[in-house]
Design a protein that fits this description.
The complex is a heterodimer of chains A (307) and B (373). Chain A is α/β, with parallel strands linked by helices and 307 residues long. Chain A contains ten helices and 13 strands. Chain A has two domains: 9-218, P-loop containing nucleotide triphosphate hydrolases (Rossmann fold, 3-Layer(aba) Sandwich); 229-290. In chain A, helix 5 (168-183) links the parallel strand 6 (156-160) and strand 7 (187-192). Chain B has helices at residues 2-37, 40-63, 78-86, 90-94, 103-112, 135-155, 175-205, 208-213, 219-245, 261-282, 286-303, 315-321, 325-337, 347-367; strands at residues 69-74, 95-100, 117-122, 125-131, 162-168. The two termini of chain B are 54 Å apart. Classes of the chains: A alpha/beta (307), B alpha/beta (373).
Chain lengths: 307, 373
């Protein structure tokens, strides 16, 4: 099979082994222009190796690979200006300020300093322009690193775990930035092991483990495909467990737990349970939780801990 | 017409490519230069500490030199006896006189620096031969003998005595003459080796190396920028050392071909950067790179003539020194800077340093890793 040239990224049966370990074992997928594509997986699933082959940092052992219609390996100077790679929040020159960093990267692509300064403002670092990269906060450093990846206006952007060690505010701030980057028409490929991140950002995700893609599709479709019960919980003390159980109805396979704080009902028929709870006027503290991408992920990759 | 147009286009595109590599080279050099000058530890290690050593050792060895002038009296010099008789004991405070009958051997002693002056009386002429390697000593010799002659004339015991003075070329090295090239060699070796090793390891660790590989910039530009910055630092080290060593206090007199030390310094920088590159190719952490570079450079400073001048070193050190790259950097500089040898005398050192650079670079390229894993 020949890799399709029209797709932004086209991967067929990609393989890479380190010694006797198959890091990537026959991976195939396509990423369309303007798509936000996520690669999910536990540590050691092969997602970083896949990304590195797409970026042209590693030579595939086998399979076909086309990025923007070109082969990334060996290092392809025609491809480099068209893609942006965000590596880590620490991949900077020592002791340079934010402005000096981005201007240096800009000049490597023949981009004028004025455009570099604009990019700094786009990621909200105009006020930190004089601050040295080492002195930036985690979120600021991450945004600088993204600005450096975007300074030459690439069509395709790769990000490896962009929100790694950020606090919740910084993560949400960064998500907004990533959405804007994608909304500008750029294709974005990111790896992450944060399921909520993939769920809110990605048009499609590939869930990888042991070097293979286990599931590929839009997050909502993957979650629906899981067919897990919905958890409905209300504050304890509003109705008895027996009443709750009758609401859930044994036929739908529902079950009830009450830990003294919350009473939870797991059901595959949430509409009738919610109507019943409303009829009992027992909706205080109501929470409804459907399955998340995390459930899909855990059901695919198992729950056992991996270092 | 088409051929003209296409060759014009080819010329234009290669000009543009050249221009963009130049711009990339310039901005990379700037980034690395700023990174260096803002690194206080690097500045202290590459400039301040070597200069401190120079000032310290220069002062120590300077003050231990004998205050008495050693004079060899060839034959019998009646004027000295008269001066001694006129003011008993005073002459002995100034001059330490030894006797000899061989003028040639005595002059050789002055050349080697074991004696300061030779004096000989031929009838009414007093011949004084002295070395100007040490300006203070030379000044004392001149004034002492001038006053001896004047006193003799004033006493009028004889008709006027004519004083002739002759300068003897001094081949021996004064402390500053081996301290300056030695400590400078050590400073350049450390700067080059540590600079290259630590840059390589830290860039590999923080993935900047990988980031640069993903930018449309050639490996050559990155290496050239780093080499350029190191060469600049080495030339600053050279300038600072020469400025301090040639002050009247330390009294280094530069030989005519001192400029030849510039290419020696440049080649030494390349050779030690190549050593650092090799260290950085193997070391995984900055700490490991620093430790390994120290293990290489520090013993070499003692065995390669940087801390211990080879002229005064035990013979086993002299033998071992031939295996030390630092020897060639130090000796190369010493020959043209202090010993007054011809410009060509630095060529063997330059050749050996460049050869070493080539061999180590080839090995480094083979074991080079872009990534920590």
């Amino acid at each position: 099979m020949v890799a399709r040239v029209s797709a932004t990224i086209s991967v067929r049966n990609l393989r890479k082994a380190y010694g006797s370990t198959l890091a990537v074992d026959g991976v195939s997928f396509e990423v369309e222009q303007g798509e936000f594509f996520g690669i999910l997986g536990p540590n050691g699933a092969g997602k970083t190796t896949t990304l590195e082959m797409l970026e042209g940092l590693r030579e595939p052992d086998g399979g076909e690979l086309a990025v923007l219609g070109l082969s990334p390996w060996p290092r392809n100077p025609a491809l480099l200006p068209r893609m942006g790679v965000q590596l880590q929040a620490s991949s900077f020159f020592e002791r340079l300020s934010a402005r000096e960093q981005i201007r240096t990267f800009a000049s490597l692509y023949g981009v004028p300093a004025s455009r570099a300064d604009e990019m700094l403002a786009v990621v909200g670092l105009a006020e930190q322009a004089e601050v040295r990269a080492e002195k930036l906060s985690g979120g600021q450093a991450q945004r600088l690193s993204i600005a450096c990846a975007l300074v030459h206006d690439p069509e395709l952007v790769f990000m490896d775990e962009p929100t790694g060690a950020l606090d919740p505010q910084a993560r949400r701030n960064l998500w907004d930035l990533l959405r804007r980057i994608n909304a500008d028409g750029r294709t974005v490929v990111l790896t992450t092991h944060h399921m909520d991140e993939a769920e809110t950002l990605c048009d499609r995700v590939a869930i990888m483990d042991h070097g293979k893609i286990l599931e590929l599709g839009p997050p909502a479709v993957l979650v629906r495909g899981l067919d897990t019960p919905v958890r409905i919980s209300v504050a304890s003390g509003q109705l008895s467990a027996a009443t709750a159980l009758s609401l859930a109805g044994d036929v739908t396979g529902g079950n009830v737990t009450d830990n003294g704080v919350s009473l939870s009902i797991a059901t595959r028929d949430p509409a009738s349970v919610l109507a019943g709870l409303a009829g009992q006027d027992a909706l205080t503290g109501l929470r409804v939780q459907g399955a998340t991408l995390e459930d899909v992920f855990l059901s695919l990759t198992g729950r056992e801990y991996r270092a | 017409m088409n051929a003209v147009r296409s060759s014009w286009l080819a010329l234009r595109s290669s000009w543009l490519a050249l221009r963009s590599s130049w711009l990339a080279l310039r901005s990379l050099s700037r980034a690395m230069f700023l990174g260096f000058v803002r690194d206080r530890a690097a500045l202290v290690f590459s400039i301040l500490i070597p200069v401190l050593f120079l000032v310290l050792f220069g002062s120590i060895y300077k003050s231990t030199s004998s205050p008495r002038i050693s004079v060899i009296e060839v034959g019998r010099v009646a004027l000295l006896d008269q001066a001694d008789a006129a003011a008993p004991g005073q002459l002995g405070n100034l001059l330490a006189i030894t006797h000899s009958s061989d003028l040639g051997a005595a002059l050789e002693d002055v050349r080697k620096g074991t004696s300061d002056a030779v004096v000989q009386q031929k009838g009414r002429t007093l011949d004084v031969h002295y070395s100007i390697a040490d300006q203070t000593t030379a000044g004392i010799v001149q004034s002492v003998f001038t006053s001896i002659v004047q006193q003799a004339d004033a006493a009028g015991s004889n008709s006027a005595v004519q004083l002739t003075t002759q300068q003897v070329e001094d081949k021996s090295l004064k402390p500053i003459q081996y301290l300056a090239p030695g400590l400078l060699g050590w400073a350049i070796a450390s700067g080059g080796a540590f600079g290259a090793a630590i840059t390589l390891v830290s860039w590999r660790q923080n993935k900047l190396l990988r980031r640069l590989r993903l930018a449309p910039v050639s490996v050559g530009s990155v290496v050239l920028a780093r080499v350029g910055v190191s060469l600049g630092v080495a030339l600053v080290q050279l300038a600072v050392f020469l400025a301090i060593a040639t002050t009247p206090y330390f009294g280094l007199k530069l030989s005519a071909n001192w400029w030849m030390s510039i290419p020696v310094v440049a080649c030494g920088t390349l050779a030690f950067m190549a050593i650092g590159l090799l260290v950085g190719s193997f070391a995984r952490t900055q700490q490991a790179a620093t430790a390994v570079a120290n293990v290489i450079i520090l013993p070499m400073a003692f065995l390669g003539g940087a801390f211990i001048p080879l002229d005064y070193a035990p013979s086993w050190i002299q033998d071992v020194s031939y295996a030390m790259p630092l020897r060639y950097l130090v000796i190369g500089m010493q020959n043209v800077m202090a010993r007054g040898e011809g410009a060509a005398s630095a060529l063997p050192a330059i050749g050996i340093l460049l050869g070493l650079t080539a061999v180590l670079t080839v090995i480094s390229v083979r074991v080079f890793r872009w990534d920590a894993v």
